[in-house]
Design goal:
The protein is α/β, with parallel strands linked by helices. The protein is about 35% helix and about 25% strand. α1 (about 10-30) crosses α5 (about 115-130). It is globular, with a radius of gyration of 16 Å. The relative contact order is 0.14.
Amino acid sequence: MDMNILICDDNSDVVIQEEFVVEEAMASLKKRSSIRTFTSAKECLAAVKENKKEFSIVFLDIEMPYISGLELGKKIKEINSMIQIIFVTSFEKYSLSAYDVHPFYYVVKPLKMEKVREIVLSVMQYEQAGSVSISDSPKLKVEINRDVIAIPVRGVCYIEK
């Protein structure tokens, strides 16, 4: 199955470099991917709105004009909560505020192939853990300390967040 990926950074040179790194990582995993790139947060958001369920991963820069990556990430999650957001930034100072958006990962630039490969594998494991299992019993996917466990729905008596 193809993995649809978005990359958004206001610097076109960074977008080209990140696209190359993501392509290299996907090739190393022998996974086909479709990558769309944007230098405008507005255009990236429009693509997500048009194709609500199409994308699996979004690599977002945080410091962008008009709409910050944090705001963009929040809006993307409102459209499709299943999209995994990876913040890619030059500044570690955003790491705490980035977690308000519930990103899957936070990476400091420049993006490295090994790190992207690791992130994509983690996303695939996360999605696999939440997919329907072989047994007939439906399961509830729960994330605990970045691990995902599947709990049979019939075993749930009470849920609190």
